[in-house]
Amino acid sequence: MTVTLPLRSPRRASAARAAGAPSRPAAALWRRLDWVLLAAVTALLAIGALLVWSATVHRVDLTGGDSTAFLRKQVVNAGIGAALAAVVAATDHRWLRLWAPVLYGLSVLGLALIFVPGVGATLNGSHSWLLVGGLSLQPAELAKFGVVLGMAFVLAERAEAHLRHGVNAVDVVPALLIAVVPAVLILAQPDLGTLMVLSATVFGVVGLSGAPRRWLFGLAVAGAVVVVAAVQSGLLASYQLLRFAAFTDPSLDPRGAGYNTQQARIAIGNGGITGQGLFEGTQTQAGFVPEQYTDFVFTVAGEELGLVGAAAVVALFALLLWRALRIARDADDLFGRVAAAGIACWFGFQTFQNIGMCLGIMPVTGVPLPLVSYGGTSMFASLMEVGLLLNIHLRTAGRSGHGVVVRSRVARSRF
C-alpha cells in the first residue's frame, strides 16, 4: 500500500491564491495531462488534414472548384471531435462509468435505425449509413466506442460485486453478449471491415482483462466458424468475396476488384525514400487511386512524403499505442484498465488493417485510418476514445499524486 498525503498547508494555499497564482487543481491538471499522447494525436490530425487536402485539391468532381472544401470540412470535424474529447476527458469518471450502459444502448439503437426505411442509406455497397438533416453518419464507428465502454462496465461491475480484483471465466459470458448484438447488426449491413475491427477489439479486451486463456482459443475458433458460415450462406456481398479473391491473387481482376490495391501499390512505390513532394504526387493528383482521401489516404503519404513520411505516420501511431497500453497498465481500477486496453486494440488493429490494405498485405475492407482519413463519424469516435484515455490517465495520476492510493499487485499482475 502506498499512502500519499498533501503537504501544502491551507494558509500557504490561500496566500498563493491571493497572490494571483493559479489554483492547485488547475495547475495540477495541466501537469497531469499526457502530453506525449496529445502531441502524437495533434501531429496525426495535422498530417491527416494535409493529406486530405492534397488528395482533393485537384478533384473538381468532388470539390466543385473549391480546392479547400475538404480541408475545411476536415478541420471542422477535428474541431468537433476535439470538443467531444474534452468533454469525455473532463467528465467525472464515476459519471462516465454510470453512463456507459446508456451510451452502449444509444450505439445499438443507431445501428438498428439503419434498417428503418427512409432513414438508413447505402453507400459504396454497404447499407451502413444514417441520413440526418443532410448529414451522413456511420453508427458502426460509434458502436465500437459503445462496446468498449459496455464491456469494461460489465467486467468491472461483476468483479467488484464479488470482491475480486480480476476477471474469471463466468464474467466473460455477459461481456461477450455486450459485443454480440452490435456485431450481428454490423454483419447484417454488411460492413465486414468494421466487424473485423470490432472482433479484434473484443478479442484484445478479453485477453488483456485477465480472463482465462482458453477463452481466446474459443473466440478464435468461433470467429473462423462465423466467417465460413457467412461465406457459405451468401450473407457477404459478391463484391466483398471478389475483394478477398483479389487479395489472394492480385492479378485475378486488375481492372475490377484488384484495381484499388494495384493503384495503391503503384502510388506508394512512386514515393521512393523522400517522396515526390506534397501536392506533387503523379498518381494522387491524377486521381488514379479510388477513395484516396478516405480509405486509401496512406497512399498519399507514401507517394508524396516517401518512406520517410510514411514511416513518421506509423511511428506516431506506435507512440499513441504505447501511451494507451501504458495508461491501461497504470490504471488502478478494472474499468479503466479494460477500457484503455480496448482502445489500444481498436486503434492498433484498425491502423494495421488500413495500412495493410494499402500495401496489399490485408484485404480491402473499407476501414478509415483513425485520425487521418476524411470523415466525421470516424473522427468523432476516434477523438472520444482519446478523451477516454486522457480521463483514465488523469484519474490515475490524480490518485497517485493526492490523497490515499491503494495499489494491488493482484489486480495488476493479470493484465
Structural class: mainly alpha
* Distinct helical segment count: 17
How widely separated are the two ends?
19 Å
Main β-sheet, in a few words?
A: 3 strands, antiparallel
**SSE series:** EHHHHHHEEEHHHHHHHHHHEH
Considering DSSP H and I runs of 4 or more, what fraction of the residues is helical?
55-70%
Short recap of the structure:
By secondary structure, the chain is mainly α.
Question: How would you describe what is shown here?
Answer:
By secondary structure, the chain is mainly alpha-helical. It has one domain (34-413). It has helices at 10-18, 24-32, 35-56, 60-63, 69-90, 93-113, 139-161, 169-187, 192-208, 214-233, 238-248, 259-271, 282-286, 298-330, 334-359, 376-401, 409-413, and strands spanning 2-3, 120-123, 126-132, 135-137, 404-405. It has a three-stranded antiparallel sheet with strand order 2-3-4, with helices on one face. A hairpin with a 2-residue loop joins β3 and β4. The two termini are 19 Å apart. Residues 1-24 and 402-415 have low confidence and may be disordered.
